[in-house]
Amino acid sequence: MDSNTLEELIRSRRSIRKWKKERISDELIVKAIELGTWAPNGGNSQSWHFVIVKNPTVIKEMADVVQTTIDKIGSWPEAAACKEEMTRYQKNGSYWRNAPVILGAFARKYQSPIDKVINLRETFDDDARRIVAFRKSAPTSIQSVAAAVTTILIAFHRMGLGAVWLAAPLIAKKEIETILKVSPDLELVCLVAVGYPDESPEKDRKPAKEVTTFIP
Questions:
Q1: Three-class SS of residue 211?
Q2: Cα separation of 103 and 42, whole Å?
Q3: For residue 100, what is the domain's CATH number?
Q4: Which residues have a Cβ under 8 Å from the Cβ of 139 and sit 6 or more positions away?
Q5: Residue 194 domain-assigned?
Q6: Parent domain of 187
Q7: pTM over 0.85, yes/no
Q8: Other C-beta atoms lying within 10 Å of the C-beta of residue 199
Q9: CA-to-CA distance for 65 and 169, rounded, in angstroms?
Q10: What is the mean pLDDT of residues 30-57?
Q11: What three-state secondary structure class fits 54?
Q12: Is there a contact between 74 and 90 (Cβ–Cβ < 8 Å)?
């Protein structure tokens, strides 16, 4: 693949929220995950794990617990301040229940040598406590899984599939982990809904110069 083809692949990928009923082969999904495992990751720990859900009943169960949580949040008095947005969110919060496949991306805890040292000192050292807070703001394991998921999304697009990265289901994180019966050492990072696309959304991006700062 030349650089122009790669550029077009990246630029043409979109988040897809409507899918055809067509079945996706396990081979395609596994291939995308295999490519995802070549993403950069902290300390080459490869601390990710992926759960593939094709059972419509299980997908519905996950969507239901997310919708229940969204509705609960929408019923709180504080939601009145953004009623219009919240109503829209409640209406669309579990649209992915119709996806043919849901991929769950999970992370195992990873500690670098730096983490091990500062964690031993944080109870009595203000500097260590401050550095621990910095590290927790963007944990290495989360960054690693995010890199893998990004690669998987590009691979899906190349295969003619349409997918969307789902962070909102984290509001029902523990419930989803229970439904999927994952190991206690795994933490849900996101879900990815995937299928053959039944829409062609067009969304632009800000010019790179608007989101870039050079420090000479």
A1: helix
A2: 22
A3: 3.40.109.10
A4: 107, 110
A5: yes
A6: 14-77+90-200
A7: yes
A8: 11
A9: 9
A10: 96
A11: coil
A12: yes
